[in-house]
Design a protein that fits this description.
The structure holds two protein chains of two kinds.
Chain A: E1 9-20, E2 23-35, E3 40-44, H1 51-58, E4 66-71, E5 74-75, H2 81-91, E6 92-95, H3 107-118, H4 122-135, H5 151-163, E7 169-173, H6 181-196, E8 200-204, H7 208-212, E9 216-221, E10 224-230
Parallel strand pairs in A: 3-8, 3-9, 6-7, 7-8
Antiparallel strand pairs in A: 1-2, 1-4, 4-5, 9-10
Chain B: H1 3-16, H2 18-54, E1 60-65, H3 75-79, H4 88-93, E2 100-115, E3 118-127, H5 131-134, E4 139-142, E5 156-159, H6 161-168, E6 177-180, E7 183-191, E8 196-197, E9 200-201, E10 205-209, H7 210-217, E11 224-229, H8 235-249, E12 256-260, H9 261-304, H10 306-314, H11 319-355, H12 365-392, H13 395-399
Parallel strand pairs in B: 3-10, 5-7
Antiparallel strand pairs in B: 1-11, 1-12, 2-3, 2-6, 2-11, 4-7, 5-10, 6-7, 8-9
Helix pairs in contact in B: 1-11, 2-9, 2-11, 2-12, 9-12, 11-12
The chains are: A alpha/beta, B alpha+beta.
Chain lengths: 244, 402
């Protein structure tokens, strides 16, 4: 087993069960996983294998029924909801398949939202939003509403929003799922560039080609991690499979 | 999250969802305006009745000839109902009853009035100089009747405003002679326009001295005696004093009925109470309707926005920030909607008064406050309650609700 202190993320015996009517769905079964800083990981597997649930767990959007989750050596499963909100705000960026932009806010206002929620002063916000718009090539789209933007532009706004607070972990759930091939490629390159700057990147995808680009690939089936492969001799690309 | 940002986000949310905001404003305005207008109508009716009754004077005790039996049919009634006349002397004797301030004898008949070739029918009242004070009438020209110490009756008449207009137009009628029935009377005064009371207007009246009227109508008995007590507290004392005095003068027989204005008002009080209850009922139903409308719009909108709540939480918003956003928005919407409704209601009531000037359709303050309060409270409760629940959800549960 890995040293928890050296890992960015350590999951031990994570369990999650959903009840859909009478039937019981075990989305996660005894998952153990260690992730080091600035890794690039793809999580793959069939629908219902639990890969989105795993991502939501890591993003603190969902709570496990059992097991522990250490983020930067700190047990975050036992934190109060408001402390978890603070962790989400400061350490985690989320990118969704359907973008989840607020339709009535302009691109700039959507990007600004995490700063507003974190209580950053207005002048500082304006400076950082301007910089982000520049970085993502959205300056001339700043005052457009989401429905006036193309799919690729929307996902760029979503990425700018997820990274405006410089999180340690960037979580992307099917980031190219709603985009055409060329735009998807552009978005992936953007995410990889962020990873190259040191941001840990975890991508959930159906797309084999996209998954193959990651340095480490996790395969999930039926709530278990069934394979964990590293292309490159990465320092910490080790993980344990499940043991049922 | 800073307060100003909170306000800006909430205001943006209100103006960003125009359909929802519009529906909510509509529901609130209709609810509050309905309460304001309906209670203005109900309360206006109540005021109208009260004003009609106070217009006949204050602290009045009224003497009617004859005994009104309430205990079934008395065989004596079949033979005679008014054994003795109620006379002017009876009336004048009442001035000696303690607590009596003024009296006005009253005799009524219809007659023809004729001046300059113009003829019309009119109601004629024979009374004395105090009638004007007892009935709180106002003059527009000249003077009222003068004191008639001898009891012969002078040949004077005071005209109602409409009669004056029809007979004389804009010319000055003072000192002119009119023919009333078979007599020639001199016009000494004209009543102000718009006097009323008991559903009767004074614009079409002729007022002449009681002795003159008695001679013209060839009658000795009075129609009524109006007695004004010195104060409200003395009304009961005056009532029993008056009854005793008349009974004494009528050889110990109690052959008159004495009623007080308060008693009349009390009778009507029952009706007025039912009216007030009706108004309260109408207001309560309008309020309930307004509350339900507001509740529906709020519930639908919060369900629609659960995904937004999930997103805000995913972006690092605390449950507190989410709640504050929704409370701020609910306050903004409720207060604006309530104000709009109140303004609409007042405008509606003003329009009613414009159309029916005699009808005092002023909304009562309690109804306005209750309407405004219910709208705001229901807006807050049904805006905040579901938002609170949504704020407690795990972000992923909220986020996946679309």
């Amino acid at each position: 087993m890995q040293d928890d202190a050296a890992s960015l993320i350590s999951l031990h015996g994570l369990e999650r069960t959903f009840y859909l009517g009478d039937s019981k769905v075990q989305a996660l079964r005894n998952v153990d996983l260690h992730i080091s800083p600035s890794e690039y990981i793809a999580v793959m597997g069939p629908s219902g294998s639990g890969k989105s649930t795993l991502l939501n767990m890591i993003g603190l959007l969902d709570r496990p029924d059992a097991g522990t989750y250490l983020l930067e050596g700190r047990d975050v499963t036992t934190l109060k909801p408001d402390e978890q909100a603070k962790v989400r705000s400061e350490r985690i960026g989320f990118i969704f398949q359907s973008f989840h932009l607020i339709p009535r806010l302009t691109a700039a206002a959507n990007i600004e939202l995490p700063l507003v929620l974190a209580g950053v002063p207005a002048a500082e916000r304006a400076r950082r939003v301007k910089q982000a718009l520049q970085e993502y090539g959205l300056t001339d789209r700043a005052h457009h509403l989401p429905n006036q933007l193309s799919g690729g532009q929307r996902q760029r706004v979503a990425i700018a929003r997820a990274t405006i607070l410089r999180p340690a972990v960037l979580l992307a759930d099917e980031p190219t799922g709603n985009l055409d091939r060329a735009t998807g490629e552009e978005v992936v390159r953007l995410l990889e560039a962020l990873n190259a700057q040191g941001m840990t990147l975890i991508v959930v995808t159906h797309d084999q080609a996209l998954g193959a680009r990651a340095r480490r690939q996790l395969r999930m089936e039926d709530g278990r991690i069934v394979s964990d492969a590293s292309d490159v001799g990465d320092v910490s690309a080790a993980a344990t499979g499940s043991s049922g | 999250m800073k307060a100003l940002d909170n306000l800006r986000y909430a205001a943006g949310s209100a103006t960003g969802h125009l359909l929802r905001t519009g529906l909510l404003m509509l529901a609130m305005s209709i609810g509050v305006a309905a309460v304001v207008i309906l209670t203005a109508l109900g309360d206006g009716a109540r005021r109208y009745v009260i004003e009609e009754f106070s217009a006949i004077g204050t602290n009045l005790v009224i003497v009617l000839p004859g005994r009104s039996e309430t205990g079934g049919l008395n065989p004596a009634n079949l033979i005679t109902s008014t054994p003795r006349d109620l006379t002017v002397d009876d009336a004048n004797s009442l001035l000696r009853v303690p607590g009596v301030k003024r009296i006005a004898p009253l005799i009524i008949g219809t007659t023809e009035v004729n001046a300059g070739g113009k003829l019309r029918e009119a109601m004629m009242i024979g009374t004395n100089e105090d009638f004007m004070h007892v009935r709180q009438m106002k003059l527009s020209l000249g003077r009222f009747l003068t004191r008639d110490n001898i009891g012969h009756g002078s040949a004077e008449v005071v005209l109602g405003a409409l009669i004056r207009e029809e007979l004389f137009g804009t010319a000055n009628p003072l000192g002119k002679t009119v023919r009333v029935g078979d007599r020639r009377l001199r016009v000494v005064g004209v009543l102000s326009q718009g006097g009323r009371g008991m559903g009767m207007t004074t614009d079409e009246l002729l007022i002449i001295p009681v002795a003159t009227a008695q001679a013209m109508l060839d009658s000795n008995t009075l129609f009524r005696i109006l007695v004004e007590a010195r104060s409200r507290e003395q009304i009961e004392e005056v009532k029993s004093g008056v009854l005793k005095q008349i009974t004494q003068r009528h050889d110990g027989e109690e052959d008159v009925t004495v009623i007080t204005q308060d008693a009349v008002l009390e009778t009507f009080d029952k009706i007025l109470n039912v009216l007030t209850l009706g108004v309260a009922g109408i207001a309560a139903i309008s309020l309930a309707v307004a509350g339900i409308l507001v509740m529906n719009v709020m519930l639908v909108s919060v369900t629609q926005r659960t995904a937004e709540i999930g997103l805000l939480k995913a972006l690092g918003a605390t449950a507190d920030s989410v709640r504050q956003l929704f409370i701020t928005e609910a306050v903004l919407l409720s207060v604006t909607g309530g104000m709009l409704g109140t303004a609409l209601g007042y405008a509606g009531a003003a329009l009613l008064r414009q159309i029916y000037p005699a009808f005092p359709a002023y909304p009562p303050v309690w109804a306005v406050l209750a309407g405004l309060g219910t709208a705001i409270v229901s807006g807050l409760v049904f805006g905040v309650m579901p938002a609170r629940r949504a704020a407690e959800l795990d972000p992923i549960t909220a986020l996946s609700k679309r």
